[in-house]
């Protein structure tokens, strides 16, 4: 009899799963010159799911890295650190990439470099968040809060594919994916996205994304509240119990991310997907926990 | 010495202000055939700030209206109730209009009718929400969660004007209005809205909207958190202390509305603005409190 896999419902269960599976990913950290990054890296290494390779200043190599026995590669500038950390992924010496104390633009430029970057040609780069909201009974996956301004059909399809893969990695056998819109009507004239939603739903029903249930356009309440769904008298396989939300554009995705972190005490983890290895790309002001959970998420999905 | 006016910071203060000012608005209620609408109307009438005119079935007129001594006008169908209630506003026999147990489309059709409706020619119709979030220290005004899919420059300007007027009615002398976007950069190519934001900011500085501070594009965190603003090293007159948020489009506005009501235990009030009288247009599934607060909001801003 096959072992029943247990669905991961919060971040402590995620870390427990990584331990149970003996996951330990080589993680290149670009320019870990601030206390927050160092604290998150230290905790992830203590939990055992990453083995850090710090691409850092000489001072940090001798001090922080030396104290903890972490591997280090010296860089003189943030730019050089970004290039060297990306190089480690490209040469398959690292399984995960993390941004430290440097501007996002600097790291993205190294990632997207056509000659020595790590985004394969014709591959869609997108941003996926996993959030635990105190008012929701399980994790909520969503995309895209940070990268794609207005997804094309191809980008949208890859967003769904990535999100479904993430849910499977969290041992959700048949994730419920809701295509978010302000109402449940397909209205090609005012809202061109809703037409592509109808196509995606069909593709999903035909098995294009593996085991999952896809529906939309649906609004957030109908997607995440069985009561709201029943009040609206909508019949949807999502059942007011969505695992994942696909947002129409970056305005909506970014706003949701910021609303739940600012006003709902949400815990979040996030990575870039599409690159040769998952990239942890925290914002200034993200908590240490958020960085730690993002490292855990990246470690789980890294191949 | 003029009396110092006290800023309204939550809905109980709003209701207290209405009492203090002896506000009592004649409120036409279209088809109040459900318990939720009736309960909200009864409570608002008991608080004293509305005098209801129920456009209802014969049964409701004899039962509910009779029991409470409310004025009533008989209608045979929801459509007739919508037309008659709109007619009361048009004939200046009602100061506020409220939707009862009928489809939004039915009431909107009567409101927007070119011959006998109540939207003056060339007037912008928009939806304004006031929310009290447990995690924010004051009321938050925002637009547009429900009506305008993608605001034109003219519509955007009126949104700002209405919101500033609302804030003034809540005795906020110099409201801070944030033009919301996913980042603080003006980027006309990817995000055409951000260019119109820059224009609005200039108009605001030149006094086009009366006493207020307008800035944007700004993201939600920078707008509502002094800490986030300082981490990002942004210098904005909003100071992480926004009173009002202007959202780029209906996708963003609607999502924010639903996120805060579903996941942040927000209390909300909302009205349509632009019509000859404010319109309370609750959604199915809105709480009795939300309907009551919306009536209070409409009563305050009705002229």
Structural features, described:
The structure is a homodimer of 303-residue chains. Chain A is of the alpha/beta class. The first copy, chain A, has two domains: 21-122 and 275-301, 3-Layer(aba) Sandwich (Rossmann fold), CATH 3.40.50.10950; 126-263, Isopropylmalate Dehydrogenase. Helix content of chain A is 42%, strand content 18%. Chain A has helices at 11-20, 35-47, 58-68, 78-90, 104-112, 153-169, 192-205, 220-224, 226-231, 250-263, 288-301, and strands spanning 25-30, 50-56, 71-74, 96-99, 126-132, 140-143, 176-180, 213-218, 244-246, 267-273, 279-280. In chain A, the strands form two sheets. Chain A has a six-stranded mixed sheet, with helices on both faces. Chain A is globular and about 65 Å long. The mean pLDDT of chain A is 95. At the A-B interface, helix 8, helix 9 and helix 10 of A face helix 8, helix 9 and helix 10 of B. Chains A, B: GO terms for molecular function: phosphate butyryltransferase activity. Chains A, B: Residues 79-298 form the Phosphate acetyl/butaryl transferase domain. Chains A, B: It holds the Pfam family PTA_PTB.
Going by helix content, strand content and strand pairing, the class of chain A is alpha/beta
The overall number of domains of chain A is 2
Share in β-strands of chain A: 15-25%
Query: CATH topology of the largest domain in chain A, which one?
Result: Isopropylmalate Dehydrogenase
Task: Give the helix tally of chain A.
Answer: 11
Quote the average pLDDT of chain A.
Answer: 95
Q: Greatest interface and its residue counts? A: A-B, 40 and 40 residues
Q: How are the strands ordered across the major sheet of chain A?
A: 8-7-9-6-5-10
Q: CATH superfamily of the largest domain in chain A, called what?
A: Isopropylmalate Dehydrogenase
User: Could you give the count of β-strands of chain A?
Assistant: 11
Question: Biggest sheet of chain A, in brief?
Answer: 6 strands, mixed
The CATH first-level class of the largest domain in chain A comes to Alpha Beta
Helix content of chain A: 40-55%
Shape of chain A: globular
The first-to-last residue Cα distance of chain A is 27 Å
Task: Tell me which oligomeric state these chains represent.
Answer: homodimer
Radius of gyration of chain A: 20 Å
- Poorly predicted parts of chain A: none
Which sequence of SSEs, written as H and E, runs from N to C of chain A?
A: HEHEHEHEHEEHEHEHHEHEEH
Return the CATH architecture of the largest domain in chain A. 3-Layer(aba) Sandwich
InterPro entries (chains A, B): P_Ac_Bu_trans, Phos_Acetyltrans/Butyryltrans, PTA_PTB
Domain Phosphate acetyl/butaryl transferase (chains A, B): 79-298
Enzyme class (chains A, B): transferase
Pfam families (chains A, B): PTA_PTB
């Amino acid at each position: 009899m096959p072992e029943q896999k247990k669905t991961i419902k919060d971040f402590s269960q995620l870390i427990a799963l990584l331990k149970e599976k003996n996951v330990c990913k080589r993680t290149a950290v670009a320019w870990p010159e601030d206390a927050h990054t160092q604290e998150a890296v230290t905790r992830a290494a203590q939990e055992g799911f990453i083995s850090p390779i710090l691409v850092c200043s000489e001072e940090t190599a001798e001090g922080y890295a030396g104290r903890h026995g972490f591997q280090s590669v010296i860089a003189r500038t943030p730019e050089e650190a970004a290039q060297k950390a990306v190089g480690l992924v490209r040469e398959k010496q690292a399984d995960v990439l993390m941004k430290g104390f440097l501007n996002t633009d600097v790291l993205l430029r190294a990632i997207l470099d056509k000659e020595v970057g790590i985004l394969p040609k014709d591959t869609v780069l997108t941003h996926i968040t996993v959030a635990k909201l105190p008012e929701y009974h399980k994790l909520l996956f969503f995309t895209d809060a940070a990268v794609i301004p207005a997804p094309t059909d191809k980008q949208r399809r890859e967003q769904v594919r990535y999100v479904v893969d993430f849910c499977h990695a969290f041992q959700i056998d048949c994730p419920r994916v809701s295509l978010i819109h302000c109402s449940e009507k397909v209205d090609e004239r005012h809202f061109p996205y809703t037409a592509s939603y109808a196509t995606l739903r069909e593709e999903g029903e035909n098995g294009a994304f593996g085991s999952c249930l896809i529906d939309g356009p649906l609004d957030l309440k109908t997607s995440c509240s069985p009561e709201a769904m029943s009040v609206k008298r909508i019949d949807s396989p999502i059942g007011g119990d969505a695992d994942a939300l696909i947002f129409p554009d970056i305005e909506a995705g970014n706003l949701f991310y910021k609303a739940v972190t600012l006003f709902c005490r949400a815990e979040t983890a996030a990575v870039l997907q599409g690159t040769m290895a998952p990239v942890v790309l925290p914002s200034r002001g993200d908590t240490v926990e958020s960085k730690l959970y993002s490292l855990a998420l990246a470690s789980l999905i890294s191949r």
